[in-house]
Amino acid sequence: MAAEPIVVIRELTKSYLQGDLNVTALNGVSLDIQPGEFVVLMGPSGSGKSTLLHIIAGIDRPTSGSAMIQGINIANLNESQLADWRNQNVGFVFQSFNLIPVLTAAENVELPLLLTDLSSAERRKQVATALELVGLADRGHHRPDQMSGGQQQRVAIARALVTDPALIVADEPTGNLDAKSAGDVLAILQSLSRDAGKTVIMVTHDPKSAAYGSRSLHLEKGEITA
Amino acid sequence: MTIASFVVKNALRNRRRALLTVISVAISCGLLVTLLTLQRELTIPPESEAASLRIIARNKVSLAQPLPSKQLSIIEKIPGVVAVSPFTYFGGNFREETVTSFAQFAVDPVRFKNLIVEGRIADGNYDDFIADRTSCFVGADTMKRYGLKIGDRMRFSGTFYPVDLDLKIAAVFQGTVDDRGVFFHHKLLDELMGNPGTVGTWYIRVASAEISNDVIAKVNDAFANTSAEVRAETERAFQMGFISMLGNVKLLIGSVSTVVVFTLMLVTVSTMSMAVRERFRELAVLKALGFRRRELFSFILAESFGLALVGGALGIFGAWALWTGIDLQKLTNGFLLYFEVTPRIMATGGVVAVFLGIFSSISPSIAVARLSVVQGLKTLD
Predict the structure, then answer these.
(1) Rounded mean pLDDT, B248-274
(2) How close is the nearest chain A Cα to the Cα of B362, in Å?
């Protein structure tokens, strides 16, 4: 028997005003994602792939339709509930790494754990595990400006992993990396999906990156075309 | 890492700006404390426990109008009056000074001894003062300031009275709230003025503070409907009357203090707004990671609060150390006597610093509350 989908999107619409223009970013999108899938969202700029990713991750709200993640319609959660939900269920990886420059790698990874009830020792243990998973166990005391882009993105992945979320969303995670570093990052994301059972949803323009995923979806003008 | 260390690291990420903010808050708080201390110095006269036992009676028409000497025998018979002495302000200039910072009063030496109970004789002998009608009784601060000693002469040129004084120092007092005055024989002034039979005011000591209001009423009533009606009041009320002649000093200093606080507010609000604005994308990331509005507000509040508090503490304690360490009495030629930075003034400065910390975090916090994660993240790509 097939597992329950972790993501169930139905007739999702997102429109917003850009000046006087009403722009439709998503137009009746429906989609199921199974646990442990590595789904790649592709499409031209303005196709709605990032908007879809943001709604699934709970940092944007749909205009209509439903987004059930792990059985919860996140559109019904208030601001505070949504923040808690994100902390416990979603790990973020951004194109520009978005590490806090005044914190060390270990401190950056520890940030989401500050919102939990874990003790300082428990937090340190989880941080060490996450950094080890991305191959940076010995760089925990380095600040972001002392690391390469690839290393910074691996720290960002460790930060996404550290709370052990079911869902990891990555918005063009290799966009600022060289080919070697991009390969390393994608391999980690693939391993998280394949070996650790995490559901990974990644936005990319790059077909080579898309090859790491287990399924690719193409969006155009706010609709899934393939 | 703890939330506190995260806040500290954020606050110090731009060290130059943090330092400049702390310095500007410190200087402004120091200035505020200085202004409040000045206001206190000018509007609250020195007060002692014994002062609550003293009453000054002056002519009801005005302080410049004298009172007849014959009132003495009536006043000293009023129940509750322990001692009474004429007390006439001479207002002379000492040596070549154009403004002399200590007052000279003509008194009855024998009666006056019972009025000043809180001081002690530091040098010389009070009986020598009583015995020699050309002698004077001088405060220790004035002796020290002018390098005087027992037996020296003090010459005053009259400004209110058309006569000059040449007095020999017979005794020195100290231990009162104002050890600067010079007291001399009223008889000498009477002689120089041709025995006009008048005094400036009456200085009265009552048996207890509880009956002072009753004695004031009796003194006033005793001369009601006479050609020289009196207005008796406590020593403190009399001093406050003098201060009111300076104009509304309180309002003036209060206005300047308000401007200082307002300027300080603009500086810190601007600094915190800039600090938060350049961190919008980081704050958006924190929101994405699960930090709620109230947690981000706490970060901003703690940061601005910390900067304001450090600056405030430096300014307040800096002002306290400065004004405690400097001999302002000497520097200002006796114009400022104590210039005491009281705990109450320091607390006021502290409250202003706390208020600043809170107020300066409001505007950036509203901006962060309104910040959508998606909009915040867009600023980085």
Answers:
(1) 80
(2) 20
Mark A140-155 as b/e (b = at least 16 C-beta within 10 Å). Answer: bebebeebebbbbbbb
The model's confidence at residue A177, banded by pLDDT at 50, 70 and 90, is confident
> What is the pTM for the complete model shown?
0.67
Residues A114, B287: C-beta atoms closer than 8 Å:
no
Residue B373: closest CA among A158, A50, A184 = A50
Q: How far is A33 from chain B (nearest CA, A)?
A: 21
Confirm or reject contact between A145 and chain B (CB < 8 A). no
Q: B199 and B337, same structural domain?
A: no
Quick one: pLDDT band at residue B381, thresholds 50, 70, 90? very low
**CA gap B230, B211 in Å, rounded:** 19
At residue A141, the pLDDT reads 94
Q: How far is B360 from chain A (nearest CA, A)?
A: 23
Phi-psi region of B306 (alpha: psi -120 to 50; beta: other; left: phi over 0): alpha
B129 lies in some domain: yes
Mean pLDDT to the nearest integer, B123-130: 88
- Average pLDDT of chain B is 87
Q: Pick the range with the lowest mean pLDDT from A20-34, A159-173, B41-55.
A: B41-55
Q: How many domains does chain B have?
A: 2
Residue of B nearest to A172 (CA): B381
B195 and B148 both lie in a single domain: yes
What is the identity of the amino acid at B151?
Answer: G
Q: Are residues B68 and B194 in the same domain?
A: yes
Is residue B220 located within the same domain as residue B77?
yes
Identify whether residues B29 and B107 lie together within a single domain: no
Q: Which of B88, B110, B63 is nearest to B158 (CA)?
A: B88
Q: Do B1 and A114 touch (CB under 8 A)?
A: yes
Cβ of residue A23 closer than 8 Å to a chain B Cβ: no
Question: Does the complex come out with an ipTM higher than 0.85?
Answer: yes
The Cα A5–Cα A172 span in angstroms is: 24
Q: Is the pLDDT score of A114 beyond 70?
A: yes
Of A57, A60, A115, the CB nearest to B291: A115
Which structural domains are found in chain A, ordered by start?
7-224 (3.40.50.300)
Q: With 90 as the cut, is the pLDDT of residue B345 above it?
A: yes
Which residues of B sit within 8 Å Cβ distance of A?
A: 1-3, 6, 9-10, 12-13, 281-282, 285-293, 295, 372-374, 377, 380-381
Same domain, B84 and B203: yes
